[in-house]
Amino acid sequence: MGSLGAYTPSFRVLDDTRPDDTTLPAFMVSTTRGFLPRMDPIVSLPSEFDPLETILQRMPVKTAKNEAGLLAAGNLGDVVHEELPNLAWAVDKYKANLPLMNALYRDYSFLASAYLLEPCHQRFVNGQSYGLGRKILPSNVAQPIAQCAEICGFKPFMEYAGSYALFNYRLEEPDAGVEYSNLRLIRAFENGLDPASSEAGFVLVHIDMVKHSGPLVDGTMRCFKAVPSGDYGPEADEARSAFNSGLVSILEAMKCINGVMETMWSKSRPMEYTSFRTFIFGITSQSMFPDGVVYEGLYDNQPQDFRGESGANDSMIPLMDNFLQVPMPDTPLTEILRDFREYRPSNHKAFLHFARDESLRLGVKDYALGTKGQEDTELLRESRNLWLEILNQVRDFRWRHWCFAREYILKRTSHPTATGGSPIVTWLPNQLVAVLGEMARVYEIGGEGLGQRAADIMEAATRQKQTLSKEVDKYCAERGVDR
């Protein structure tokens, strides 16, 4: 037999997430919680951080008390200078508690982004262009966020998983679990502390999507375990059945994720997105920070630049890209994709590297598609169909992401870059076209033997590729962008 029943992976995926263990990072990949933190995020900070907590509660445009907050009048900058002590000493006191470090990283990153982008928000709400953000992050914010980021393995700027989204929820009723109606934000910029607001919906839908990533991880690991090594031997059917079972787990998880993603339209209204989007821009490739940002007292006071928060930093679709061995074009846009990979929890990055290398080492795609001379059996045809179905779910995800960009951003602002610093018109299509191309290659291998369902998938994919090309041409022409 091959690896079935004897497979020992080089990466440790958790089954028991050990939620009470403060010595482990908050983010570790598991078969139960997937890419969510291994425990529900810490909400309350130690008393030493009361000055920080007080400012964060007063900060949103609309506070939890439904009052105008510091960002409503543009008063946050003055308050940070006048009221916030440098609590680096307190960060050092608790540095052995890694989940707490993650909570502090979240909170300081919210404050840092709000401080730097507050002038841009004020201009935007007055109908002006964003203009320039603040050029210096003061030491009472810069030093603590840098400390927390280094301990947790993040960049010293807001990230999707460790800060804005996946470590930014609390449960209204602890016993009710991670259900959408039970989720509330811990921190917000605009009106996100109201669970019915568009800012809350934008973040909480992402959490609700990632809730389904456990079976995605589990299915991936089961497929790795099932792929035979060398001679397929007499247990070939057993291995193939186990492999297909893993693919089914992946497929069903992707369907759930895409189903939740579709709810974004109603949970976070397109016409309201730009009102809080200002605060999640980064420094890299943004007109607001043409010379970077100086972290006062750090990095020899040389300007720094970091990418902003982006759902593109999530780990689910990159896992599928690596597992499925989707080839990306050799373009500058793909280089941005590679750069985005650095803006994830360290354990997530390590797992994605493992999944890429393991899929190649085991020859997962060759096995799934039967390109190494395997006998053309019903089980192999099932593998090919499941592989195409999973690619189709990745396509569906990326198409919907493009539709979000079109309806939430392209139709409402002329700003040329997304929050993460990627070109808003051309970057998402770069990856979507790659998946559509891979689907065509897989279908060519399987041919008519894949059946009518596969033929229907490919017909729809072909139409979508044509539609995408027309839409990209349209927006490039309107904005004077070189495709």
From TrEMBL:
Name recorded for this polypeptide: Indoleamine 2,3-dioxygenase gamma type
Residue numbers binding heme b: 401
Species of provenance: Stachybotrys chlorohalonatus (strain IBT 40285)
GO molecular function: heme binding; metal ion binding; oxidoreductase activity, acting on single donors with incorporation of molecular oxygen, incorporation of two atoms of oxygen
Keywords of this entry: Heme, Iron, Metal-binding
Similarity field: Belongs to the indoleamine 2,3-dioxygenase family.
GO biological process, one term: L-tryptophan catabolic process to kynurenine
PANTHER family, per database record: INDOLEAMINE 2,3-DIOXYGENASE
